[in-house]
Specification:
homodimer; alpha/beta; Rossmann fold; 6-stranded mixed sheet; 16 helices; elongated
C-alpha cells in the first residue's frame, strides 16, 4: 500500500483502462462518456476501453478483460455494474494497476446490506492487491497538468487551487465557475463515498503538493473525526484552506446520508473544529469560489482597512453597509488625504470624498487612476476596491456605457499592475441584456488579466471579509 | 395643493417641458438625455425643450422660458443649475404647471448653507404656486402606462410592482433586473432628497393605486418617523410591502447622509417599525427583487412545507440546508407518497425519494411531470420547487445539455399551467460559457411564461422563506 502523503501517481497515470465502455447506443453508456471526455480533453497517455462483449469503438479495440490489455495499466476508471466490481479489482491486482476510480454506484450509499457488503469486499480485495480506490459513486479526477478530466469542456489551463468534493455535481460547478473567473485548478477530486482514500488522505496530500497553493473542500461529513482534525490543521497551517461544510440542517444532514452516507455531525462542533484548525468556513458554493478568488489573485493586505472608489450614491451606501457588516473597516478619509484627492479634480462639486468615494460622473482615465494612486500611496487603507455598477447609470445609453466599460477595463488592468496595495473589483448590476453581455466580456478579460472581480456587492463583501480576517489572524 | 392620496397626475402628464436642454455638444447635457429618453421611449404627449439660449434641437424649438411655451404644460423636468431654480418655479406657477421633477443637484444634499437655503426657497415658492416637487437630486419617474421613462432602454411592458427609491442608480438597477426576470412595474419613483413629496406621500399613494399590487422601496432614512410608520402600516395592510432599509452600519449611515441627507436611525428601531407595520425586510437589492418576483408570480401557499425535485445529490444537500435555514419546512415524504412516486419509475435504483427528491438521471418529460403532479395532488407540501443545475452534469456535453434544457423548459411551462400548488424554479450553476448563454435564454423564456425563476440556491431560499413567512403571518 502506498503512502497517502504522496498521491502523485493518481494524477499522472501513463495509461488508463475504462471498464464498461459499450459500443451500443445507450444514453447511460457512462464508460463511453469518460472515454470521450479524456480523449477530447487531450489525455496524453494510452486509453484502453474494456467490456466483456469485446468489439471496437471509435477505432479502438475493446478488451474483454483488463488482463487482455498489452503492457502496463496504471489506472482504471470503472463504469461497470456494482456486482462485477470484485472481479475487476482482482484482475486489476494481477495487472499491477495502482488505482481504480469507481464511478459505479450501488455500494455503501444505498440503504441496502448487499451494497455495504460489496463495498467492504472491493476495499478488502484492493488492499490485498495494493490498489488505491477513488470513490465509489463519484466523477473522479480533474488535473490539467496530468491531462485528466471527466468532461471535455473543462479548462486546459492549470493553476494552484485544489478542491476535494463529496459531490461530483458541485465539483463540476466549481470547475466551470472557477475557470470562468480566472481560478485555475491544480487538482479537483470528486471523492464519492471515500471508502478507501478519503477527505483526510487528500488533505494530507494537498497540504504538501507543490502544485497546490489554496485548498477548497465541499464536505458533507467525515468518518474519522480526530484524524480529519489533524489533517485539516496541517493543511490550514500550510495553505489557505476553505471549507464548505454542509448538512447543517436536519433535512440537509438527512440528504447527506442518502447521498454519500456521510454523518454530518453537529454544526457547532464543526464550527469549533474549523476555527481551531485555522480553516476558513464558506457559507455556499458561490462564497467558496469567491474566497478562493481573493486568495488566488490578491497579495496579503497589511490590515482590514478598505477604501472604495466608484460612481453612485446608492451603491456607496450598499457597499458601506455590506463591507462593514463583513468585518471590514471603512476608515474616514483624513483632511490631508481629502485635499490631496480634491486636487486631482477641478472642484468637489458632485463628488463625495468620503469612504466610499463617489466620483458621481465618469472621469477621464487619468483622473481615475490618479485617485487610485493617491489612495495607494496613502497610509489610510490596506485594500482598494473599485466598483462599477453598469445598470446604475440611469441616463446613459448602452452605447455610451460600452465605451465607458472599455475605458474602465483599460484603467483597471493598468492600475492593477502599478498599485502596491491589493485591488479588487466589484462589477455589479448588469441585468439588462446589453450590460449582461458587456459584463461577461469584461469579467472574462479581467480574469485573464489576473484581477479579482466579484459579481455583486454582498458577494464581494463576504469574500473580502473572510480573506482579510484570515490574514489578520495569521499576523496576530 | 393637491391631496397626496392621489398623485396620478404625476404619472400621466399630457405635456412635459424639459428645462436645461442645450443644443451644444457636451457630455453633461443631462437635459438632452431626458429629452432623448422620453422621445425614444415613446412618451405620447408633447415635449418642449427649454433653454435661455433658445435655438433648435432635433428639429424642435428650444423655448427661452417655460412662459413662452404655447398651451398648457403639465410637468417640468429640470436639469438647470440650482441657482436658477427659484425663477423656474415662479415661471412654472404662472403657467399652472402641476409638478416639477428636479434632476438638478446642489441643494440640501451638499454640506453647504446655500444649498439648504435654495432648497427651502424652491419648496416655499412651489407651495405658494400649487406645484408639487419630485426630488431634487434624482432621476424621477418611470411609468410604462404613462409613457414616462428616464432611459430609452427601459421595458415598455408595464406591470403591478411599484418602487420608491432614494437612489436613482438603485432604481435603474431594479428596473433592468426586474424586467429581465418578468417583474413588470406600475411606477418607479427615484425621489432624491424628497424635499416636498417624500417616501410617506408615495407610500400613501401606492397603497391605494389600483395599478400597483406589490410595493418595494429602497430607503436610506425618513424625516417623519410617526407619519412614515402610519403610511407603511396602511401600505403593508393593503399590499405586500418589501423594504430595503440601508445605512445599517456606521459607514453606511454616513454615506446616506452625504447622499440624500437621510438620517438612517437605529437599525433595531427600524427592525421594530418594519415588523410592527407588517412590512417585509429585504437584505439586499437582489433579495428585494427576488421577493418581489415570488409575490408577482406565485399564488399564496397554504403553508411553509416545500417539496423539492431535481437532479444531483450535492445540490440536494445545499437546497435542504439553505431552505431549512430560511425557515421553510422540508417534510419527510410518507411511505404512501414514496410508493406512489416509485410507481412512476420502473425502479428506485439511483433515485432518492426523500425531500429533496433526487431523480439522479434526467427523466422523460412524462415521468418528470408525473412526479410533479403526484406531489401536487398530495397533502404533504404547500409549495413545489424544481431545481436545474446546468454545470452539475459533470459527464454530459454542452450539446446534450441544450436538449435537456429545451425539454425542461417545455415541461416547466406545461407544469406551471396545470399544477395547483405554487411552483418555483431554481436555475443555478451556469458559469461555463455555453451554459451561461443557455441559462439566460431559459430564464428569459420562463419570465415570459410567468414563472418565478431564481438564479442560485441561496437566493431562492431567502426569497421563498420571506414569501411564505408573510403568508403564514397573514393567516395567523
Amino acid at each position: 500500500m502506498q503512502n497517502t502523503d504522496n498521491l502523485d501517481f493518481l494524477f499522472h497515470p501513463r495509461t488508463i483502462a475504462i471498464a464498461g465502455v459499450s459500443n451500443k447506443a445507450n444514453k447511460f453508456n457512462f464508460g463511453l462518456k469518460f472515454l470521450e471526455g479524456l480523449t477530447q480533453y487531450g489525455f496524453p497517455g494510452k486509453i484502453y476501453p474494456v467490456n466483456p462483449t469485446g468489439g471496437k469503438i471509435k477505432g479502438m479495440t475493446i478488451y474483454r478483460s483488463v488482463k487482455d490489455i498489452p503492457g502496463q495499466v496504471d489506472f482504471i476508471i470503472s463504469a461497470i455494474p456494482a456486482p462485477y466490481t470484485p472481479q475487476l479489482v482482482d484482475e486489476a491486482a494481477e495487472k499491477d494497476v495502482r488505482a481504480i476510480h469507481f464511478f459505479t454506484s450501488g455500494f455503501g450509499e444505498i440503504e441496502d446490506d448487499e451494497g455495504r457488503r460489496l463495498q467492504a469486499e472491493i476495499i478488502d480485495r484492493a488492499k490485498r492487491g495494493g490498489i488505491r480506490i477513488i470513490g465509489p459513486n463519484c466523477l473522479g479526477l480533474y488535473c490539467p497538468s496530468g491531462g485528466l478530466a471527466f468532461n471535455s469542456d473543462f479548462e486546459k489551463t492549470g493553476g494552484s487551487v485544489a478542491m476535494i468534493s463529496q459531490s461530483g455535481g458541485n465539483a463540476a460547478h466549481c470547475i466551470h465557475d472557477g475557470t470562468s473567473r480566472g481560478i485555475y485548478f491544480s487538482k479537483v477530486i470528486s471523492m464519492g463515498n471515500g471508502a478507501d482514500l478519503n477527505e483526510s488522505d487528500y488533505l494530507d496530500y494537498l497540504a504538501q503538493d507543490p502544485e497546490t497553493r489554496i485548498i477548497t473542500a465541499y464536505l458533507e461529513g467525515t468518518r474519522q473525526g480526530s484524524r480529519f482534525f489533524e489533517a485539516l490543521k496541517t493543511a490550514a497551517r500550510a495553505k489557505p484552506t476553505i471549507i464548505l461544510k454542509v448538512g447543517t440542517s436536519e433535512s440537509g444532514a438527512e440528504a447527506a446520508v442518502s447521498h454519500t452516507t456521510a454523518l454530518s455531525g453537529s454544526d457547532q462542533i464543526w464550527n469549533g473544529i474549523l476555527q481551531q484548525a485555522g480553516a476558513i468556513r464558506a457559507g455556499s458554493i458561490e462564497e467558496m469560489m469567491d474566497i478562493a478568488l481573493a486568495f488566488e489573485k490578491l497579495p496579503a493586505p497589511a490590515g482590514n482597512r478598505i477604501a472604495i472608489v466608484g460612481i453612485g450614491g446608492g451603491a456607496s451606501v450598499l457597499l458601506a453597509d455590506d463591507f462593514s457588516h463583513a468585518g471590514l473597516a471603512l476608515p474616514k478619509i483624513s483632511d490631508t488625504l481629502r485635499h490631496r484627492l480634491m486636487r486631482v479634480f477641478s472642484s468637489e462639486a458632485g463628488r463625495i470624498f468620503k469612504n466610499p468615494i463617489d466620483l458621481n460622473h465618469f472621469e477621464t482615465p487619468e483622473k481615475f487612476f490618479k485617485t487610485l494612486s493617491t489612495l495607494d500611496q496613502s497610509d489610510e487603507a490596506d485594500l482598494l476596491v473599485i466598483h462599477v455598477a453598469l445598470d446604475h447609470f440611469g441616463l446613459v445609453s448602452s452605447q455610451e456605457k460600452e465605451l465607458w466599460v472599455e475605458t474602465y477595463l483599460q484603467l483597471i488592468t493598468q492600475a492593477q499592475k502599478q498599485l502596491v496595495k491589493p485591488l479588487a473589483v466589484v462589477l455589479h448590476s448588469y441585468s439588462s441584456k446589453a450590460m449582461n453581455a458587456l459584463a461577461h466580456k469584461a469579467l472574462k478579460e479581467m480574469a485573464q488579466a489576473g484581477i479579482a472581480a466579484f459579481p455583486s456587492i454582498p458577494r464581494a463583501a463576504a469574500a473580502l471579509g473572510k480573506f482579510t480576517r484570515y490574514h489578520d489572524r495569521r499576523m496576530a
